[in-house]
Amino acid sequence: MNSTESRDKKSNTTIVDTSDDLVTSPDPTHPANLIPELCRHFWTIGWATGTGGGISIRDDDKVYIAPSGVQKERIKPEHIFVLPYPQSEPPLASTADTRTFLRKPSIPLKESACTPLFWAAFDLRDAKACIHTHSQHAVMATLLWPGNEFRIEKLEMIKGVRWGGVEGTMTYEDELVVPIIENTPLEEDLRHTLVEAMKAYPKAAAVLVRRHGVYVWGPSWESAKTQAECLDYLFELGVKMKLANVL
Ligand SMILES: CSC[C@@H](O)[C@@H](O)C(=O)COP(=O)(O)O
Ligand SMILES: [Zn+2]
Fold it and tell me: What GO biological process term is on the record, naming one (predicted)?
């Protein structure tokens, strides 16, 4: 049990800190400041509109998560959840009673439904940040590549993508392969196939979700962001090239 939690012996429930201490910092690069700023930016480029999409950042033993179902461009630091890392089990909504939080907002909010998906990037790739976008370029790519892989080559922006999302950068000579998984009615239910795809494609920097979007991660929030930008560019260009019959 961490310092911000205490257990009420009578009711046997965990009382979580709802103070703003863990999400208040004058440092603009503190995750609780960065998540609202990046979500605002992602909203302006169509990655996180209509409450969809988002980003989670891991700072050592803490994971910072945005709230669920809210206008992502209007999140404030005090709306951010803080979870301890690592945890023996991924924090699934279906295990709500046993999940541990270091900090919850004082107003009634739920943590992002993407939490178990972000967690897969932290656990399987040791990522420090994971971005989920609803970019139409990603969605179109999953429609024009009907199989279980998006493939593209001979484009300069491939050089901005890392092997596995966290290792060395790819070269112009390398073919980019991104696995595609099928969407599910509930976000949480994507976890199983996302984990399977990450294991089957250990060198892939992202996982596309058909008719939904993409999960991209990196060894830092900066790297996750620039890789997501390179991949989005490649999805957009791939779609245009395929429609122009020049692929
Ligand atoms: C427009 S609803 C989108 C959600 O179901 C989900 O796909 C999503 O990306 C965001 O989930 P959230 O729980 O709001 O963080
Ligand atoms: Zn989504």
Answer: L-methionine salvage from methylthioadenosine
State the ipTM, two decimals: 0.98
- Alpha carbons 217 and 213: distance in angstroms, whole number: 14
Entry pTM = 0.95
Return the residue matching tokens 């998906």. 117
Is 37 assigned a catalytic role? no
What is the CB < 6 Å shell around ligand 1? Answer: 50-54, 68-69, 112-114, 132, 187
* pLDDT tens-digit map of 20-49: 999 999 999 999 999 999 999 999 999 999
Looking up tokens 């112009």, which residue turns up? Answer: 172
Measure the CA–CA gap between 186 and 188, rounded to whole angstroms.
Answer: 5
**What is the CATH superfamily name and number for domain 20-243?**
Class II aldolase/adducin N-terminal domain (3.40.225.10)
Q: In degrees, to the nearest 5, what angle opens at C-alpha 184 toward C-alphas 129 and 85?
A: 30
Output the CA 111–ligand 2 centroid distance in Å. 14
